[in-house]
Amino acid sequence: MRMSQGVEWALHTCLNLSWLDAPVPTSTLAAFYELPPAYLNKQLQALARAGILTSTSGPRGGFQLARTPAAISLLDIVAAIDGPEELFQCDQILRKGPGEHAGVDYRQSCAFAQAMRGADLAWRRELAGKTVADVRADVERGHPEAPANTRARIVELR
Fold first, then answer.
1. What distance in Å separates the CA atoms of residue 81 and residue 70, rounded to the nearest whole number?
2. Which of 79, 107, 126, 127 has the smallest count of CB within 10 Å of its CB?
3. From which residue to which does the signal peptide run (predicted)?
4. Alpha helices for the chain (secondary structure H)
5. Percent of the chain at pLDDT above 70?
6. Is 44 in contact with 82 (CB distance < 8 Å)?
7. Residue 18: which residues within 8 A CB-CB, separation 6 or more?
């Protein structure tokens, strides 16, 4: 399993935005980690469509969190970027194997499909139970200077 690169970018950007009180332009957010602005903008637009970010146009515009950090789960961000589909897609190849039965939905009876679905649900449950606020608290505990450093870097990059 491999998530798209945009998931990492979106997670870090949401964390950084949680420490800021005003919209931040895509170009500034991209410069923060030396990311390509056009590609980051696609991720930010996906987060806005999902209701995680809001976008404001104009000279003082940009992106900011649409909800409190406690109301944004890591699963919300992953699903906004990579989609809500299950990671394992059962193509029901058992239909072509020996002992196949017409009309059977092998997605429901295949032991592999069931095991993969269980793992996917556990993964989603874990991500749904962790919020941007939780990660923010972890970061602030380990690196108390992070919020101030983020704010200073954003000011420097504007």
1. 19
2. 126
3. none
4. 5-18, 26-32, 37-49, 74-82, 106-109, 111-128, 132-142, 146-157
5. 87
6. no
7. 65, 69, 132, 133, 136
pLDDT per residue over 62-117, tens digit each?
A: 999 999 999 999 999 999 999 988 877 776 666 666 666 666 665 566 788 889 89
CA angle, residues 31, 56, 147, in degrees to nearest 5:
50
Pairing of strands 62-65, 53-56: antiparallel
| Cα dist from 89 to 28, 104, 152, whole Å | 38, 17, 45
Average pLDDT over residues 15-43: 97
Alpha-carbon torsion (27, 31, 33, 34), positive or negative: positive
Using only C-alpha atoms, the chain has a radius of gyration, in whole angstroms, of 20
Q: Cβ distance 73 to 14 under 8 Å?
A: no
If pLDDT is split at 50, 70 and 90, which confidence band does 158 have? confident
Residue at 151: amino acid letter: R
